[in-house]
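User: Predict structure, ligand pyridoxal-5'-phosphate.
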Amino acid sequence: MVDSPWPRLDDASLREAYAAFLAARPEFEATCVIDEVRAREFGRLDALGQIYLDYTGSGLYAASQVRRHSEMLLGHVFGNPHSTNPTSLESSRLVERCRRHVLEFFRADQDEYAVVFTANASQALKLVGESYPFEPGDQFLLTFDNHNSVNGIREFDRARGARTHYVPMVPPELRVDEAVLERCLDEATPGRHNLFAYPAQSNFSGVQHPLEWIAKAKARGWDVLLDAAAFVPTNRLDLTRFRPDFVALSFYKMFGYPTGVGALVARKTALAKLHRPWFAGGTIDVASVQADRFVLAAGAAGFEDGTGDFTNIPAVELGLELLESVGVELIHERVRLLTGWLLEELPALRHGNGRPLVRLYGPTSLERRGGTLAMNLYAASGRVIEHDQVERQAGEWGISVRTGCFCNPGAGELALGLTRSEIEHCFTATGSRMTYDDLRRCVDPHEAGAVRVSLGSMSNFADVFAFREYARHLLEAA
Ligand SMILES: Cc1ncc(COP(=O)(O)O)c(C=O)c1O
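Assistant: Predicted complex:
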């Protein structure tokens, strides 16, 4: 527990700044029902003096999610699914109901899409990577901007002789050059397996890559894997409008609880194309030792190894209900307005000698971006203030931000201007066991990471104001 950051913030200046914010963005008033939800459901944030700015790391859970889940657990007897006894049937009923609810939430046609419950987005991505029928002559195309759990799929395609190709992004906006992407998409090999993967929203820069790419890529022969983990907590994903083959996500990023449950939402035809590398309890209709044969269960069941998390999966519905009751569109609007304020305020912070305190990576306007901001802070001398120092100091203010490269090395390398030869040199000089600290030392005085501030469903003006105030106290007089 943090003592209290508020003595460092002057309440009067917060009130004044809020009044100015509202005057400039009167539409924010319409989102103020979220303040009531926050007071009712997330009172612990303010009671414990926590200023939470790491929503891309994890969403936060409401008190009622936990209460309703414990009532659900205490009011039922849940047995292992996969059987027909009453307690097993009860578990299966709630898990299946949740599956339907997830499809409804994403407006997916139940005949077209299936939900595979996984441990998290990474496991959903791995299921696709390990089961996609890569062969020599096939291709895996992905953007530089990707989480490592997507980058890692290249190891599967390389092991099977397929080709990996990265589409670069262009600094400073860190978006893909559409002309380059068009050329890459044109290179799908007819009659072969072509997989294209990208994030709907960057977990590094907040860039929202166009969902229109999905139809374009599909029309040219690509299967599309959309990493929606950082997008769905504050944006509507409508699978009747945009129809990727595979969507990966983690539910804790959307509403904090339960952890340990994610999903691969996949077109049934795309699932049928995958070849699982093994079978397990729960994934087969029948298997024989003597006959050395097995028959994989059809649909989602064939991808859910062993016993699923049958006590926690039903709690996903409680999170979906919370998001539905607040409204994803309203959350989106609130995050947009608060992000806009930070985008204006942070670059305006200047040391006495005129040098900027903050350098933002990625889009500096609100166009096609979400509420994730990557940046570094600099002393008046121009030297970077180490990101781990920022994380530690901000923590003393009760502020949670994340620092490093956020498991997104492609976006990080481009944002920070690290070249391939510099990084290759570090790997060669340090040896195969290079750690992140080795990399930092090797590229010094170059930045090797960044500070990430991310907004989410319960962010309020006081949160962003607190971060601005923390940053402001780093300013040096002339
Ligand atoms: C865009 C994106 N993809 C994938 C992941 C992996 O999610 P998880 O760690 O829940 O598997 C993350 C996590 O931060 C993410 O931001």
